[in-house]
Amino acid sequence: SQQGEEDPQALSIQEGENATMNCSYKTSINNLQWYRQNSGRGLVHLILIRSNEREKHSGRLRVTLDTSKKSSSLLITASRAADTASYFCATILYGQNFVFGPGTRLSVLP
Amino acid sequence: GAGVSQSPSNKVTEKGKDVELRCDPISGHTALYWYRQSLGQGLEFLIYFQGNSAPDKSGLPSDRFSAERTGGSVSTLTIQRTQQEDSAVYLCASSLASGEYNEQFFGPGTRLTVL
Q1: B69: CB partners within 8 A, 6+ apart
Q2: Does the CB of A102 have a partner CB in chain B at under 8 Å?
Q3: According to the model, what pLDDT value does residue A1 have?
Q4: Among B43, B16, B54, B39, which Cα is nearest to B88's?
Q5: A95 contact residues in B (CB cutoff 8 A)
Q6: Taking CB atoms and an 8 Å cutoff, what residues of chain B touch A45?
Q7: A 57-86 residues with CB below 8 A of B?
Q8: Quick check: is B41 in a domain?
Q9: What are the structural domains, with CATH classification, of chain A?
Q10: Does residue B113 sit within a domain?
Q11: Nearest-Cα residue of chain A relative to residue B91
Q12: Does the residue B105 lie in any domain?
């Protein structure tokens, strides 16, 4: 598997439900970032979690990090149709190169 | 500036032609990144500029790809002798400084179609 690999690849839920996406990585990291992409265009930074943090919140977003399992999860609570997007985790590899996973495509149905 | 801008937003070209894609980063951002994203796929790192340092070109897929950054601001990604497999969305991002603790701000991308 590649560095920063998200699962599931695709997720469909009803509005109001919670959505959970996972990211696994291979190498040790100092932090992990989550991004959102709408309509195949530019990405928007959502949240950064440092290696010494286990959980972080931002509005309806909750990110966890388990460095022992080399995994992170992004939880979106009370989802809305506007949350429909692709979600990517990103880590640093070999210095300054960000490595983005293939993403999870989330569809929130009204 | 208001954000990272890229031009053109769409580019259709014929196989074998050269194309130039432009990126205007946020003013004051010293780090600039280029990525490529094929349909439904993740981001593929291409090249990274940090200040006046030599760029990290380790992600460029072939010698047909090159990029420059003039005056530490605007960047141009050039693809020579385009091939159909070059069709993708090319994304540019900038950050205040290099390093993994810095958020990347992305432009809207240039959708390149090679016929």
Answers
A1: B32, B49, B55, B75, B76
A2: yes
A3: 39
A4: B39
A5: 56
A6: 103-105
A7: none
A8: yes
A9: 5-103 (2.60.40.10)
A10: no
A11: A42
A12: no
The label of the residue with tokens 């050269």 reads B18
The pLDDT, as a whole number, for residue A109 is 95
Which residue in the block uniquely carries the two structure tokens 């080399």? A70
Output the average pLDDT for chain A: 89
* Cβ contact B42–A88 (<8 Å): yes
Strand B88-95 to strand B31-37: parallel, antiparallel, or no bridges (unpaired)?
antiparallel
The answer to whether the CB atoms of A100 and B104 lie below 8 A apart is no
Tokens 């970032």 -> residue: A33
Judge: B45–A43 Cβ closer than 8 Å, yes or no: no
- Cα–Cα distance for residue pair A49/B65, rounded to 1 Å: 34
Looking at residue A40, its pLDDT comes to: 62
Q: Give A-chain residues touching B109 at CB under 8 angstroms.
A: 40-42
Q: At A7, list the tokens.
A: 């699962």
Q: State both tokens at B98.
A: 């290099």
Q: Compute the distance between CA of residue B60 and CA of residue B65 in angstroms, rounded to an integer.
A: 6
Q: Is residue B102 part of a domain?
A: no
Given a cut of 70, the residues of chain B with pLDDT beneath it are 1, 98-100
- Residues of B with CB below 8 A from A100's CB? 35, 42-43, 45
